[in-house]
Amino acid sequence: MFFSRGYDEVSMNDIALEVELSKATLYLYFQNKKSLFFAIVLRGTKILNSIIRETVKKEDKGIDKIAAYRNAYKEFTENYPDHINIYNYFRSGRFNMEPDGSEERRTKSKSNDNSIPYEIACETEISKLRKERFSILCHSVQTGLDDGSIRQDVDPVEVSILLSAISKSLSNIPTDHLQALEKGE
User: Fold this and answer.
1) How many domains in the chain?
2) How far apart are CA 173 and CA 5, in angstroms?
3) Do residues 60 and 7 both lie within one domain?
4) Is 18 in the same domain as 75?
């Protein structure tokens, strides 16, 4: 429902009706709509990381690892476009999250009642997975520097940031640009 209607257009009542559970039963599993949404974002993030991990580890040369990363990201955007859309919404600022995974909020929550709210736990896990993807890309660039498949005068972090931005942009290429690529124009 989040995929088809968007976060703001879905209520816990709607979800309960769709999955044929009582609203009370749904609340046994998720504290609120935000927790459920974060769980879906986390699931998509785990899928993306798994695809990237498996694809990149098959390659030996750094330049091939980078190409594999890009192809894995592209494969994910093509096969899981709804997950990309809700991930972008998740990262849009709508949820007022800490930039690096809510370390401060997690610490405050834990010190108050010794438990971490589910959405903060999801947010933290998503942040760890995001860092893992960046680390895989940085390692791939460093491998290329080490094996000579990438020129020696590049900074692995700068190149990884650029490549990451390019990979993310793959899901937002305008249709007319895609058509031009396909036609070879």
Assistant:
1) 2
2) 22
3) no
4) no
